[in-house]
Amino acid sequence: MRHRQASLWLDLLPKLRFSPTHLEIADGKELWLEIGFGGAEHLIETARANPNVRLIGCEPFVNGVAKALTRIEEHQISNISIFDDDVSKILDELPSACLSRIFILYPDPWPKLRHRKRRLISEQFLYRLARIMKRDAELRFATDIDDYAAWTLSRIEASSHFVWEQMSPLEWTTPWEGWISTRYEKKALREGRSPVYLTFRRRFQT
Questions:
Q1: What CATH code would you report for 2-202?
Q2: 88: nearest Cα among 50, 128, 53
Q3: What pLDDT, in 10s, does the model give residues 121-178?
Q4: Which of the chain's ends, N or C, has fewer CB atoms near its CB within 10 Å?
Q5: Strands (E), 84-195
Q6: For residue 33, how many C-alpha atoms fall within 13 Å in the half-sphere facing its CB?
Q7: What contacts 4, CB < 8 A, 6 or more positions away?
């Protein structure tokens, strides 16, 4: 098993490692981005269900990347690129308005008050995402932490680049069509926490 993982890391990852110069940006397919794919459950099944979409999966942790590589090889998936580092390192290199959808699923909530400045969602981060999203592109955000949901909504409301279109609790407590549950979500449900599924749309001022 260790030999196989080493082989995937040395042989497969270099072929899949994302670079903004890759031709997939201009190959006619929609381009989606998943930030922090964890165990890769959602990344893999989304790629399999959408063969005409190119997905970029960003994950800085070795275990998550290893799981993704194993499943990519197992299912012979050809429409995923991997960036095995912090997404902030490629955001400013991506072309403007190149993404049709972004997924941020169960990011670290940094629950302690003194650590909240480390949360992924911030005014500056949303600005950087907005630059690389097409008009009406979707930003999908899921969390099981009520405080993080409120934190995110307050920053979306303050942003001129995004609009939240879900108007009823049923809409934001119901998973997206074709949703693939992650191990983080299953853990949350076991522990009695209720996820929310928030959809924001990229808007352009006229």
A1: 3.40.50.150
A2: 128
A3: 999 999 999 999 999 999 999 999 999 999 999 999 999 999 998 778 788 899 999 9
A4: C
A5: 99-105, 133-143, 162-164
A6: 27
A7: 70
